[in-house]
Amino acid sequence: MHLLWALIVGFIVGALAKAIMPGKDPGGIVLTILLGIGGALVTDLLGSALRLYRPNDTGPGLIASVIGAVLLLAIYRLAVRHRTA
């Protein structure tokens, strides 16, 4: 059940990140889910490194996860732009 919940939340977070940063991105639903899950992981790691989250906290919320996903999407677009140029 936890995995199913992570996939659903990952899809929502990834879709929100793509809505905030519209543009031409390859991939479909799977990439959107991975983007959302990756955004939550990045935010969790950064929050732990900056001591915003304690070891027993549940981790980042929805808004922080969307910010992390937008950050990942921006990094991805910069990497693709440099590779094609």
Compute the CA-based radius of gyration.
13 Å
Global morphology: globular
Number of domains: 1
Low-confidence stretches: none
The helical percent reads over 70%
Mean pLDDT: 79
Fraction of residues in β-strands: under 5%
Largest β-sheet summary: none
The count of helical stretches stands at 3
**Assembly state (oligomeric):** single chain
Structural class by secondary-structure content = mainly alpha
Number of strands: 0
Structure description:
The chain has 85 residues and is mainly α. The chain has one domain. The chain has helices at 2-20, 29-49, 62-84. Helix 1 packs across helix 3. The radius of gyration is 13 Å and the shape is globular. The N and C termini lie far apart (43 Å). The model has no long low-confidence stretch (mean pLDDT 79).
Task: Give a quick set of tags describing it.
mainly alpha, 3 helices, globular
